[in-house]
Structures are given as structure tokens and as C-alpha cells.
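Closing statement on the adenosine monophosphate sub-project.
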Amino acid sequence: MAEREPAVPAELQALLARPAGDVLLLGHVNPDGDQLGSLLGLGLALGQAGWPVTFAGPDPVPEPLRFLPGSTLFQQWTTASGPFHLVVVCDCPDPVRTGGLLEGACGPATQVVNIDHHPDNKRYGTANWVDVGASATGEMVYELIEALGLKVSPEVATNLFTAVHTDTGSFRYSNTSVKALRTAAELVARGADPARVATQLYEARPVGSLALLGQLLQQVQVSADGRVAWLALPAGSAPEAFLEAEDLVSYPRSIRGVKVGILLKAKADGRVKVSLRAKGEVAVNAIAARFGGGGHANAAGCTVQGSLEAATARVLGAVFEALEQRD
Ligand code: AMP
Ligand code: MN
Ligand code: MN
């Protein structure tokens, strides 16, 4: 594991020490549990401390995350209002992923706080805190809230618990550290309800989802050597809400012996969204980076131009190359 940076930089603590103006908690495209949990948890805590807070991003809160306290406050923007005194971005390695909203929200005096655990973070903030050893950005935000002496209400705790829960794959992935579990335990002590979070995330499927899931999973393919499994979905294979709710890429990875699991989703606009997952043996963020994407060693993504067949061939080629280099 990379050496850890010191906890909560003093610069960042100073910026958030006391209410000093309006704050935008800004999301990126396809917001996930870690990002929304971090933004909502931090924003609710700052709001309680007297900061005027706004929550916004280029995409809406996906259905499975609408149980998060404060999620109804989250606005979908095509252009940013502003400038804000402070903009906080969480779990977002590259400002491009805010869809232009970061630039729009900033004036010459705006302070940008960048809190993240991605190794490819571009350090685009005026204050940056990047801890690649953190299981989730939510784990860092909890540390920040504690350092600032802010109140961790049950609503804040639920958001941060969900952030750690989702980024560790429900405490199953290799980032499930002692600190992740301690943070989760403390958040439960402060009012997060693990059973309720799990029910909302995994036991709230619409009727009909299982039949569609079964149908799609029949299309999972496995390489002859058994090391790579993938699911390539043509545009329109399933409703967008279904694709957002189901962690489809986890199924190819779940096969014994598979080292890299891949999901390729063709979009109507001729692009293919690719998700890559590994089990610690191949760094899939390096593969995603070859296609202009990024992420973590075991969870990465990219978007590839071209047909589903061409994208599948290119990505599989890169994955096999990475496996061969490892051998
Ligand atoms: P996903 O497969 O979309 O769930 O993403 C897995 C991880 O890869 C997350 O940490 C994302 O932030 C990152 N990621 C996904 N797509 C991209 C992209 N196009 N560019 C950079 N990072 C990405
Ligand atoms: Mn994320
Ligand atoms: Mn994360």
C-alpha cells in the first residue's frame, strides 16, 4: 500500500473551520454511493454548523440512492450558478467529470476543496487532500468532520456509512481495512443502520428485475483460459434505471479463476461505457488509462468510441496484454 499522507491537511481544516460564505457540494457524472454519501454527509454537517449549502451535479441521484438523507436537496444542473465562496468536490479525480460545472461555479476568489482517494487525482483544488490508502472518500470525510468538531447526526452517519459500505463492496473488497471497519462501527454508533442501508441498496428491486437479470447474465462470456469474463450489452438491452441499480460487472468477476471482469455497455450515441474489475492481480486502472479513463487498481472505467464489437475486441486485447506482462 502507498504511504499515507498526513490526516486532514491543516489548510483544509482552516478553510472549513467556521462559516465564511456559501458552499457548493459538487458531484460528477454517474454519481455513486461514495460520492453522494460524502457530499451529503459533509454538506449536512456544514449546514448544521451554519454554512449556507447547495448540493448539485450534472446527473440526478440514481433511484437506489434516493434513501440517502438530504438527497432531495441534490439539484441536477446543466450550467452552474455561482460563483460560490467555496466548492467542495468529493471522490472525483478529474474536474472534467463535473461536466463543466466546476468552472461555472468558480469566480476568482473561490476556494476549491478536492477530497479524494483515487491514485490518478489531478489535484485541481486550491486545497487538495488525496489519500489513496482510504477505503472510501466517505472515510476521509468522517475524519474531516471529527477534526472540525462538527456534529455527526444519524443523517450524516447514514450518508458516510453508505459511502464506505458501497466502495468496499459491502466490506468484501481488499480495501476493507481496519480503519474502514472502525469508521463503519463509529458511524453505526452514531445512528447509521446497516440493515436498513443494505435493504435499501440490495433488497428493493422492482418486480421483473430478476427475470431481466437472468436473461442478461446468460450473455456473460469467459475466455478459453478462464482468466477473463465479460458481458457486452448492445444499446437498449435494459432500461437505464435497471443498469444503474444492478452492479452487473460484479457477476463476471464473481466466477472462480477470473482475474478481470468486464462490463461493456453500448450507448445510443455510438460510445461504449466500459467497467473493469480485478481481484488484486492486474491493475485495471492502467488498462482504463489507455482508453482515456481511470480509477482504482481493482475498479476502473473508461468510455470507448466505436461499435460494441470493436470496443470489446480492443479492451479484451489490452486486458490480455496486461495479463501476459504479469506472467
Ligand atoms: P465504474 O466502472 O464506472 O463503476 O467506475 C469504477 C471506477 O473507475 C470509479 O472509481 C470511477 O471513478 C472510475 N472511472 C470510471 N469511468 C471513468 C472515466 N471515464 N474516467 C476516469 N475514471 C473513471
Ligand atoms: Mn466513486
Ligand atoms: Mn470512492
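The chain has a mean pLDDT of 96. With this model delivered, the sub-project is considered complete and its resources will be redirected to Aim 3.
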